[in-house]
Structure formats: C-alpha cells, structure tokens
Design brief:
Oligomer: single chain
CATH topology: Nucleotidyltransferase, domain 5
Largest sheet: 6 strands, mixed
Structural class: alpha/beta
Distance between the termini: 36 Å
Number of strands: 6
Number of helices: 9
Radius of gyration: 17 Å
Shape: globular
Length: 223
C-alpha cells in the first residue's frame, strides 16, 4: 500500500543505506504492524510487515512522518491459506502471498532498516513475539530494540479502564483508516494516533525513557 501511496515500485524495500534520512537534532522511532496467518505465536507465521518512522524532537515537542522513511514487504508463503475469512482480514490474496519475498530476506531488510530505533506497535507484545519467533526460525539474531505498546498510552490519555482497541481509538480521535487490518494502513493510523497522544503524554513524560515507563505502568490487563 505504501508503494501505491508514494508511487514506488514493488522491489526490495528501502534501507538506510539507500536514502539519507535527515536526523540531525532529532530522534527516530519506528511504528510497526504485522499481518499474520493467525494468532498462535508458535504455529502461525508473518505474512507482511509494514512500518513507518517518526522523526521527533528529543523532548517530544514536535513529530512528523517522513513519507520516504517507510518499510513494507510481503513474505513468501509456501502454502498460502486460501480461507476467505482469513484473506478478508489481512487483504493479502493467495497469489500475493505466493509471490512474496523469502522470509529471511524480509527480516534482514527490516532489521537493517530499523537500526537501533525503538519500536512502537498497537498491542506490541504480539508483534514482538511474532517477529522474535520469525527471526529465530530464520536463524537470525534477536533484536535488542526497546518495544513500546501504544495501547496503554491511549488508555492513559483517555482514562479508559478497559483495554482499548485500535478501532475504538480511530473513532475517538477521528482518525482516517484507509483499510483496517492492512499492515500499512494500520501502521500509518497507529503512527498518527501516537502523534495525537504526544501533547498529553508530554505532561507526564519529556523523553523516551519516561514515555516507556508510562506505557509500562498503565498496561490494562484483560479479565
């Protein structure tokens, strides 16, 4: 989807070696989403990874999404699931799954693109577990990047006591989601949500470490 939005061709995703990203005096965060064959971390696989970078001031006073600093790739599936209900969720058809890039290549590109940036995701523990498992299965080293879950930050800002879903946040903050459960669309809307939350987050956190602590302290347990 990023390719269609930004007019890029469906080739190997860009890495920091390909583009000179302007980061002088700013920080870089990565917002990620994965689409998977299911929710079983041990047995299901990643179908696609999409991510956008946020460039922001160290004191969190300003942030923007540079459209060139994005990542999106579909991973080749040897036996794509043809179940209609599954495809309707992630919108990646059997042909697209079969024509994806080798998993090890995608993961290597992704790790190189992320660099040492912290990673944000909505319901981050699931995405982290899936990425970690995929790296292990591909014989690649585990990422040491810090991960932050955006969901408890949304809960803290809105003072909701139930675990808020991304759809609820889209409605509450009047965000535009082009196609829910598309990794690229969900990534972009999560990045926009994070930017929308930052003004209130700055009341309790003025740097990344404090923001990380805020998310950890406000995780809402299910049940």
């Amino acid at each position: 989807m990023f390719d269609k939005l930004f007019g890029r061709t469906n080739e190997k995703p860009a890495t920091e070696d390909d583009d000179a990203y302007e980061l002088v005096g700013t920080c870089r965060w990565v917002v990620l989403d994965t689409e998977t064959t299911g929710l079983n971390i041990r047995h299901d696989r990643i179908i696609s990874i999409a991510a956008v970078a946020l460039h922001l001031e160290p004191d969190l006073t300003d942030a923007h999404i540079p459209l060139a600093d994005t990542f999106e790739a579909v991973i080749h599936q040897d036996h794509p699931k043809a179940k209609k209900d599954n495809i309707l969720i992630h919108h990646i058809g059997v042909d697209a799954q079969g024509q994806g890039h080798p998993e090890r290549d995608v993961l290597s590109w992704f790790v190189n693109w992320v660099g040492d940036s912290p990673i944000f995701a909505y319901h981050a523990p699931f995405d982290k577990a899936m990425v970690t498992h995929a790296l292990k299965q591909s014989g690649l080293p585990e990422m040491n990047n810090p991960w932050v879950d955006v969901q408890p930050l949304a809960n803290w800002v809105t003072r909701q006591t139930h675990p808020m879903g991304l759809d609820e946040c889209v409605t509450r903050f009047n965000l535009e989601s082009i196609a829910r459960h598309s990794a690229a669309s969900d990534t972009f809307v999560t990045a926009e949500l994070l930017m929308r939350l930052l003004p209130q987050i700055r009341q309790a956190a003025t740097d990344f470490k404090q923001l990380q602590q805020l998310a950890s302290q406000n995780t809402v347990r299910v049940g």
